[in-house]
Amino acid sequence: MDITKYARRQSHEVRIADCTIGSNHPIAIQSMTNTPTSDTSASVAQVERIAKAGAEIVRLTAQGKREGENLANIMTELRQKGCKAAIVADIHFVPEVAAIAAQYVDKVRINPGNYRTSNGELEALIAQCRERGVALRIGVNHGSLAKRIFDEWGDTPEGMIVSAMEFLRVCQKEKFDQVVVSMKSSNTRVMVHAYRMLAEAMEAEGMTYPIHLGVTEAGNGIEGRIKSAVGIGALLADGIGDTIRVSLTEAPENEVPVARMLTQHYAIREGEFDVAHPERYHPTEFVRRSNITTPITHDEIGDGFMVIESHTSNPTAELRAAILSLEDEKQPVVVKCRYEQTDIEEVAIKAAADLGVLFLDGLADGIWVDAPELEAEQVKQIELMILQAARVRFSQTEYIACPSCGRTLYDIEKTLAQIKSRTSHLKNLKIGIMGCIVNGPGEMADADYGYVGAAAGRITLYKGREVVERNIPQEEAIEHLIELIKLNGDWQEPE
Ligand code: SF4
């Protein structure tokens, strides 16, 4: 890959109803419903809202045969109403539902972690997809790898690659190219590393499948937007990505303008930059370039730091090249970029996309978001959140909250707000807030505590990966979570 100038990775076209992704097509935007897929009118109305907001592709979960079959009604109603959004069914655990959904929708997503490849099931699904012109996504998630992969590789980017490549090789053998692939994680470092390795692994085997980008369980508000922008922006800056989903624990239509802002931000890139040490750009393990252990915000700059400012429309490449060409390889560096916008969200998203990767790659030691239209405290918060999203400095509780979907068993948006209001002052803690027990526990990854929907109105609490209390009535669950945090000595009283 040429890392000195912006160019998109070469991928081939995949057609999903009226939306074609890959090759030189614009990066498509997608989102996912959180209505029950068995509820036709609610699902249709939400798909329409998401499409109206500007998403070309909309996904619905199909957890069982009933939901799979109801996709027929949803598709009929959507098309009757003139909604042309490409519709995707999201399948986990029940391969038979993939075969049901493939009769109705435009694309089927399967997770290699919980889809059987024995008995020729994948080959049969491919044959069915080919016949109806349905696309397929091989959607690998950190935290839900198959047991045999987990036992050999652990929950690692390498395991994710092995998992995806197994399935892609079957597609290649079957000469089925209408396939998209993803490697999501809530950990931006794992996510970026996995996607970069995937691009390399595919290139080594002559595969040009388009790539779907996403950071899972990013949370909500500015924090969730920043986390998504750090991960997705890092890869778009590499030229990787043909379609993106920004996952927020908010109404799904809120995800679309954030995704649009990101794709537009990368629509024009200019400049060519010398890169002195390209090997640093793709580390197999995280190393910091300098001896600074905790990167700083701009109001903390002291002696010994060098400020490097961006002056072009390609700040990531420009700043990376400037750092890598320093004579003193250990020189601590503050990266500075100016944002004239008045909207805090826009500044936060663009700065996270431009600068976050320089911390993910261990290159920069300080951040300076030069935003004259924002207040000093707002800028400070943005800088701290970017450092946290890039996992180099943790200054507040991290929430790993799923975006919710048709499986969600409680009002996750409201619950996240309530948990945040009680715990956001805690330092160095990760709390997972997940909608369902099926995917939640795996995908909250390295959370210290987990709050997971177990059944309607019932919550199960986790400490790390261990269940601590099952099926607590939802009204009491937040108090139990606080008690659990106290019991383990992780509680501090708010200042
Ligand atoms: S964890 Fe959340 S988004 Fe994932 S399947 Fe469960 S409810 Fe849906």
Strand composition percent = 15-25%
Overall pLDDT metric: 92
Query: What name goes with the CATH superfamily of the largest domain?
Result: Dihydropteroate synthase-like
**Straight-line distance between termini:** 49 Å
Q: Which CATH class of the largest domain is shown?
A: Alpha Beta
What share of the residues lie within helices? 25-40%
Number of discrete helical segments: 15
Summarize the structure.
This protein is an alpha/beta fold. It has 15 helices and 19 strands. The chain has an eight-stranded parallel β-barrel with strand order 3-4-5-6-7-8-9-10, surrounded by seven helices.
Describe the protein.
With 495 residues, this protein is α/β, with parallel strands linked by helices. It folds into three domains: 14-265, TIM Barrel (Alpha-Beta Barrel); 278-389, 3-Layer(aba) Sandwich (Rossmann fold), CATH 3.40.50; 398-487, Sulfite Reductase Hemoprotein, domain 1, CATH 3.30.413.10. Helices cover 38% and strands 19% of the residues. It is built from 15 helices and 19 strands. The protein has helices at residues 40-53, 65-80, 95-101, 121-132, 147-153, 157-173, 188-204, 221-238, 255-265, 315-324, 344-360, 376-389, 412-423, 440-443, 474-487, and strands at residues 14-16, 19-21, 28-32, 57-61, 86-91, 107-110, 135-141, 179-184, 211-213, 243-245, 296-297, 306-309, 333-338, 366-370, 398-401, 430-434, 449-455, 458-463, 466-473. Strands 3-4-5-6-7-8-9-10 form an eight-stranded parallel barrel, surrounded by seven helices. Strand 4 (57-61), helix 2 and strand 5 (86-91) form a beta-alpha-beta unit. Helix 2 packs parallel to helix 3. The longest helix is centred in the middle third of the chain and has 18 residues, at 221-238. The radius of gyration is 22 Å and the shape is globular. 53% of the residues are buried. The model has no long low-confidence stretch (mean pLDDT 92). The structure holds iron/sulfur cluster (SF4). Iron/sulfur cluster binds next to helix 14.
